[in-house]
Amino acid sequence: MSRQILTNATVVLADEVRQKLAVLVEDGKIAALDPEHAGDAVVIDLQDHTLMPGMIDLHCDSLEKEVEPRPGVHFPFDFACAQADKRNASAGITTVFHALSFANRELGVRNNATAAALGRSIHAWQAHALVDNKFHARFEVTDITALPVLSALMEEGVIDLISFMDHSPGQGQFRDVESFRTYLSNVYKADDATLDEIMKQKVGAAEGALERMQQLAALAHAHGVAIASHDDDSATKVEVMRDLAATISEFPINLETAQAARSHGTATLFGAPNILRGKSQSGNMRALDAVLAGVADCLCGDYSPASLLPAAFKLPEIADISLANAVALVTRNPARAAGLYDRGVIAVGKRADLVAVRHLGGLPHADLVWSRGKLVLGASRVHH
């Protein structure tokens, strides 16, 4: 179906919601809104649906779980990429940045060799993919061994977004040293001596971290790769990251830091699971409070891509914002933050990445999903 006209839906545009606005799709792009003549286009009746842009998830950790669903149990990378691709399509996510951590001291898939191979697999699978799968490389800045690995991947052109994260105890996500120790103990089941060694090495490796970030930021700039910072905890850290040309502040931990990021023109990113659960998993700032304070620019799926759609539709009820503004948090705003100006809005000339949403049992579901004009998910019968 190279030419399709989607009719009778409630359509979410950039700044407003329109009833029964027809959308003409041709050659993978949005060709017209409410055209007088659709010619031989296939008519798809979307009565009782809300049509919105395909969602853009800047930070999705779930591919790691597709590879290693249980500790020490690993699936082939192509199989994992295929399953993640399907899950994102079914969630209404048409552009996903798979976040892979380069933190060589950590276990499982979070070591440099495994993360690099998995990142390359994302791009290899794209030839068969339903949606647009991208590679978000998360650099643990205290890992002194990751720089050459990430530099090589950058030169190969397989990294689409790089973020700088520092999980050293006493700052960022783990402001309390004991909370960091508890996290390591719960996740890696290590004994006290091993935990002491990990924490000691992290603190020592902080020296030289800025120089490593500067080298990678220069490479990112040269290759057109977007830059994000992770768990910013102060205006000072925001300024350091802004000097590195970061355009995204992931999970700022308090209101003051989020305000500082936005004052520098840096887009703030919060977790959609945080919206549904009503709290942060690490006890930091609630995403809802960021929305209420007007300092949230984007939402991401984080560890639950399926949470993105219901979070966006819940916000008009709990945060007194319009549906258009809520949808912008998962479409237009993340597209702009990552420099993807060809998508994220329903407008003439943009990619026809679209989601037809229907409510079932009070929950919004992605009923039909188009990626570049191709129907990649059809959960219900539609009238032609």
From TrEMBL:
Its EC number is 3.6.1.63. It comes from the Bacteria. One of its GO terms (molecular function) is hydrolase activity, acting on carbon-nitrogen (but not peptide) bonds. Keywords: Hydrolase. It is an enzyme of class 3 (hydrolase). Signal peptide: none annotated. SUPFAM superfamilies: Composite domain of metallo-dependent hydrolases, Metallo-dependent hydrolases. InterPro entries: Amidohydro-rel (IPR006680), Metal-dep_hydrolase_composite (IPR011059), Metal_Hydrolase (IPR032466), Metallo-dep_Hydrolase (IPR051781), PhnM (IPR012696). The keyword Repeat does not apply. Pfam families: Amidohydro_1. Residues 51-360 form the Amidohydrolase-related domain. One of its GO terms (biological process) is organic phosphonate catabolic process. The keyword Hydrolase applies. This is Alpha-D-ribose 1-methylphosphonate 5-triphosphate diphosphatase.
